[in-house]
Amino acid sequence: MNSMSEKNDTKSDVARSDITREKLLENALDVFGRYGFDGASTRKITNAAGVNLQAIPYYFGSKEGLYIATADYLANIIGQYIGGMRQRMAEQIAALDATGMPLGEAQARLFLNEIVETMVVLFVSKKSEAWARFIIREQMEPTAAFERVYSGVMGPMIGLGRRLIGAIIADDPASENVRLRCLSFVGSLMVFRMANAAVLAQMEWDAIGDKEIARLQQHARRLVAALGPAKGEIS
After folding, report:
1. So what's the pLDDT on residue 52?
2. What is the mean pLDDT of residues 126-153?
3. Lowest-pLDDT range, 18-27, 79-88, 108-117, 124-133?
4. Same domain for 50 and 155?
């Protein structure tokens, strides 16, 4: 009986430990995004998480360790939403490559439409507010955390976007032209999150609900449809 009780106690301790660590990461993402690394005190983070101040050195070693872990946490969260889609598309493209068949324009547009419809929903969701704040700060003043988010999420998605846009406009995905076109395309979607207040003001919307999301997805599909080689563009 004692052995069974000890095992149950151990499982409970592990569960509590996981919950505490999750609380710290979730609230650190919000606090770091709002105040930046320097402005986000460990007390602000632990108060927001409702845990003891010593939890940060216990789980992460230091504030710096928590910051890096927060970047990994963010990459993992976003990956849960888009990772499966990205992997499925990458595998299908790799299968075409293995047979020597090029990725066709029609298939590339289908893939890109699926991506933009997913990303629009993700960008305008309430949960992505904290993500955006953290990422914007890292874009402006990149630290080691930027590499975690970039290599875990942004880089692979942009790489997939380049491959699809390259197929659509019949240009090398590694070319400067496609890189610029892809970054511009991504920016035209990110505006719905990064400039959310301006979007609401310009569209005269009180909030973004299901109807507004449908309108934004329709607009995103039009952006995909409009992709094509421009006259006189340099490849």
Report:
1. 93
2. 91
3. 124-133
4. no
Long-range contacts of range 222-229, CB-CB < 8 Å, 24 or more positions apart? 223/116, 223/185, 223/188, 223/189, 224/109, 224/112, 224/113, 224/116, 225/109, 227/109, 227/112, 227/165, 227/168, 227/169, 227/181, 227/185, 228/168, 228/169, 229/169, 229/170, 229/171
Q: Which domain holds residue 97?
A: 70-226
Give domain status of residue 89, yes or no. Answer: yes
Last residue within a domain, chosen from 61, 88, 105:
61
pLDDT of residue 232: 56
Total domain count for the chain?
Answer: 2
Does the residue 233 lie in any domain? no
Average pLDDT over residues 55-81: 95
Q: Band the pLDDT of 126: cuts 50, 70, 90.
A: confident
Specify if 121 maps to a domain: yes
What CATH number has the domain bearing residue 36? Answer: 1.10.10.60
CATH code for position 95:
1.10.357.10
